[in-house]
Design brief:
The protein is of the alpha/beta class and about 650 residues long. Helices cover about 30% and strands about 20% of the residues. It contains 19 helices and 30 strands. A seven-stranded mixed β-sheet has the order 5-4-17-16-18-19-20. Helix 14 links the parallel strand 19 and strand 20. It starts with about 25 loop residues before the first helix and ends with a helix. The structure holds adenosine-5'-triphosphate and magnesium ion. The site of magnesium ion has 4 residues, from loops. Keywords: ATP-binding, Ligase, Nucleotide-binding.
């Protein structure tokens, strides 16, 4: 059994932002308001949905006749491209900048910055939609693939497809040919859009070559459109491949394509999950519910306003980019930054210079990025002016209280809201977070905060019963929410099995969590990444967090390995902070440190020092890969792995230990 003493998190530390614009309420008051929102049932969401422009209003708010295939706003007709582009281009925001795009800088500073207004975006989206429709005959019911670097054409193609009711699937431009082929085949895409190449860390990623290889094993792709980005020579297959600029030159400048009236529950896109825990799942999102959740969270979590410059540092290839680069901010008529390349190339402060150069006011980034910045050291931040930033959130993994404090101090100047929004590809948008744009509760370092209004989150034990406060268990969502998946593409059984079978009628998330007495949730990592040391359940993340609190540690991955006495013990792989020398007594010191800070049940077989950790291409630690190497079992599907050398690094560390 787990008890309160074993959880060492700052449950009682409450921090309020110093900016007067946020209405800070007590957690108790928030709980009451939250309870009232749930009492209204699905109808709660109607007033949010009504703020979108529907072509035809819905007849039924929630159709729950065929669970778990819930449908939101049934009978309603809507278009995501219309909501994001037309509304603003035809209104007072038409000359407002929608996208500030920055290409990857070369050694002597940024060369390329492009700004697109809402009117520019509207024109481009219409011209591309015209092309897709007239030249390629795509329409409702079709699927297309997008494999592009972070250039303006990426959101433009997504919005053009949405305009036609064509479901699209974006493949992150760092993926290999196999991953592209798998996704195109699974999605049955007819057309694939790519670029000749993309810039990353000063090198060209040969996207078109990768596509050529992928297309050797795809069945449905008939045409390829190629955006010229790097200008390198590429092979163009006659009858199949064409350059975008060539075909687009024949499309009239003022081409207009009527946005398709799509049904609220029609698919908008298919997106494959990050693959952290196994084979990626093709999550299908609809339009009406999804856009409703984005509208709510852009306001509540990000407090988005017209004067803001919004920057989400994720890649559009992940759900974070879909929701909070493309559909969310543009629907709100925001000005946002889109950047190509890497946050720390050519210098560790590329990202801070972007904040400074474009006066970013709302910043959305990830723990993996923050821990990397920690590794480089604070001097890279303090040499820039980050005073434009007024609100921040992190996403993707739990944020260690230590990393939270570091970033809150250096960038947040201990005065602005800074949260960790919990959600996943499947949820479509943020579900658990502090909401500085509506009712803000005090912050706590590392927490996710309470669920947003209208969302019923809870923590269950193995029997499917809610656990007491400050006890660990499984995170669940007890009621349908707008933005939930329609299904897993071509595999509805897997959808039922993965999410709705462990606790029938309740959405099983697969994360391990604890709820404190103030109703704040603390996501502790994956439910299957839990160690059982002498019968105590410890999230690997909890031990990683304890390690990171040590001033010498920048990043850590902990996995469980079998132990004859205790069942399991921990094995840690640690990246040290810049400038730390490996003293012989450091390992012992770290073990002692963790036992003092976390508890004596933290038993390690060994702590290894490494330079890299296996991560997904979205930057998450792939503990299942570390564990497989450490226990000598099959590593399984590693198409999401960023750098194969990281696996070797783990292997080497283990061999040296033996
Ligand atoms: P796969 O499902 O293929 O294994 P994945 O779960 O990494 O991959 P995503 O949908 O990109 O794919 O990530 C969602 C997961 O990320 C959540 O289940 C959770 O574990 C983690 N996560 C996201 N945001 C947070 C956060 N703010 N705090 C803690 N964990 C988070
Ligand atoms: Mg997942």
């Amino acid at each position: 059994m787990t008890t309160q003493e074993e959880i060492n998190l700052p449950f009682n530390e409450m921090i309020e932002p110093k900016l007067l614009r946020h209405r800070v309420v007590s957690p108790q008051l928030y709980s009451e308001i939250h309870k009232r929102s749930l009492d209204q049932g699905p109808q709660f969401w109607e007033s949010v949905a009504r703020e979108l422009d529907w072509f035809k209003p819905w007849e039924k708010t929630l159709d729950d006749s065929n669970p778990p295939f819930y449908k939101w706003f049934v009978g309603g007709e809507v278009n995501a491209s219309y909501l994001t582009v037309d509304r603003h281009a035809n209104g007072w925001r038409r000359n407002k900048v929608a996208l500030i795009w920055e290409g990857e800088p070369w050694s002597d500073g940024p060369k390329e910055v492009k700004k697109l207004t809402y009117l520019d975006l509207y024109r481009e989206v219409n011209r591309v939609a015209y092309l897709l429709k007239e030249e390629y005959g795509l329409g409702k019911g079709d699927t297309m693939g997008i494999y592009l670097p972070m250039i303006p054409e990426l959101p433009i193609f997504m919005l053009a497809a949405a305009r036609l009711g064509v479901a699209f699937t974006v493949v992150f431009s760092g993926f290999s040919a196999q991953a592209v082929a798998d996704r195109m085949n699974d999605a049955e895409a007819k057309l694939l859009v790519t670029a000749d190449g993309g810039w990353r860390r000063g090198k060209v990623v040969p996207l078109k070559d990768i596509v050529d290889k992928a297309l050797e094993s795809t069945k449905t792709i008939r045409n390829v459109l190629v955006v010229r980005r790097t200008g390198q020579e590429v092979r163009m297959e006659k009858g199949r491949d064409r350059y975008l600029h060539e075909v687009l030159s024949k499309v009239p400048q003022n081409a207009y394509v009527e946005p398709e009236r799509v049904k609220s529950e029609d698919p908008l896109y298919i997106l494959y999950t990050s693959g952290t825990t196994g084979k990626p799942k093709g999550i299908v999102h609809g339009v009406g519910g999804y856009m409703t959740l984005l509208h709510a969270t852009m306001k509540w979590a990000f407090d988005i306003r017209d004067e803001d410059v919004f920057w989400c540092t994720a890649d559009i290839g992940w759900v974070t980019g879909h929701s909070y680069i493309v559909f969310g901010p543009l629907m709100e008529g925001a000005t946002e930054v889109l950047y190509e390349g890497a946050l720390d190339y050519p210098e560790p402060d590329r990202w801070v210079s972007i904040v400074e150069r474009h006066n970013v006011s709302v910043l959305y980034t990830s723990p993996t990025a923050i821990r990397t910045f920690m590794k480089y050291g604070e001097q890279w931040i303090t040499k820039h002016d980050v005073s434009s930033v007024r609100l921040m959130h992190s996403v993707g993994e739990p944020i260690n209280p230590e990393a939270w404090r570091w970033f809150f101090k250096l960038v947040g100047k201990e005065r602005i809201p800074f949260g960790s929004t919990w959600w996943m590809t499947e949820t479509g948008g943020i579900l658990i977070t502090i909401t500085p744009g509506s009712y803000m509760v005090p912050m706590k370092p590392g927490t996710n905060g309470p669920p947003i209004l209208g969302v019923a989150a809870n923590v269950y034990n193995d029997e499917g019963k809610p656990v007491p406060e400050e006890t660990k268990g499984y995170l669940v969502i007890e009621r349908p929410w707008p933005g939930m998946p329609l299904t897993i593409h071509r595999d509805p059984e897997r959808y039922v099995k993965v999410y709705w079978s462990k606790f029938p009628g309740t959405f099983y998330v697969g994360d391990y969590a604890v709820k404190d007495k103030d109703g704040y949730f603390w996501i502790l990592g994956r439910a299957d990444e839990v160690l059982k040391i002498a019968g105590h359940r410890i999230g690997t993340y909890e031990l990683e967090s304890a390690l990171i609190q040590h001033p010498a540690v920048a990043e850590a991955a902990v996995v469980g390995v079998p132990d004859p006495v205790r069942g399991e013990v921990a094995e840690a792989f640690v990246i040290l902070r810049g400038g730390t020398s490996v003293r012989p007594e450091l390992k012992e010191e770290l073990v002692k440190f963790v036992r003092e800070n976390y508890g004596p049940i933290a038993v390690f077989r060994e702590i290894h020092f490494v330079n890299k950790l296996p991560k997904t291409r979205s930057g998450k630690i792939m503990r299942r890969v570390v564990r497989a190497v450490a226990t000598g079992s099959e590593v399984g599907d590693i198409t999401s792995l960023e750098d194969e050398a990281s696996v070797e690094e783990i292997r080497k560390a283990l061999q040296e230990f033996k």
